[in-house]
Structures are given as C-alpha cells and as structure tokens.
Amino acid sequence: MADFLLLVMHDRDEAERLARELGADGWKPCAVHKDLLAGEDDVEDADWVVELATAPDGTPAHTHRDRLEALADRHDGFVTD
Dihedral sign, CA of 31, 37, 38, 43? Predict the structure, then answer.
C-alpha cells in the first residue's frame, strides 16, 4: 500500500481550491496534477488530482482515507492510491 493518496476531482478550480485548503491545514505536499487517461482525445475530459502524502499529524495520508473520501464525496470526486 502506498503512503500517498490522490484526491481526484473533475474540475481544476475545485482541485486547486481543495489543495490550498488542505495545505493550509497542514497536509503535504498538496500538489495538483492533470490526469489524462490513455486514449482520451479531449483535454477537457481531464481529471485533476491533489497529491497527499502526509497528514497534519505527520502520519501517512492513507491512514486518513475515510476522512479524505468523505471530503471527495462532498465535491463529486474520489480517492485513489
């Protein structure tokens, strides 16, 4: 199991906003990346992922998966490894 998690959002602005909020709360690194699935022709279909490795308490992000899944659900996203 990887220590990091990816918070996957369909909207870039939403991903960037969540990354700022999570970063202000102490999550690391909160980097936002574009994720295009192989074979997708339309860049507009890209998902945006927020990379989370460490929680504010210093534990690996995956130990807080339930909390992050609830957050993603509220914003029509999901969490993956």
Answer: negative
Whether pTM exceeds 0.90:
no
| Average pLDDT value for residue range 50-56 | 97
Distance CA 36, CA 25 (A): 28
Q: Which residues of 26-49 are buried (b: 16+ CB within 10 A; e: fewer)?
A: ebbebebeeeeeeeeeeeeeebbb
Residue recorded with tokens 């339930």: 66
- CA-to-CA distance for 73 and 10, rounded, in angstroms? 12
Across-strand partners of 38? none
Residue 36 has pLDDT above 90, yes or no: no
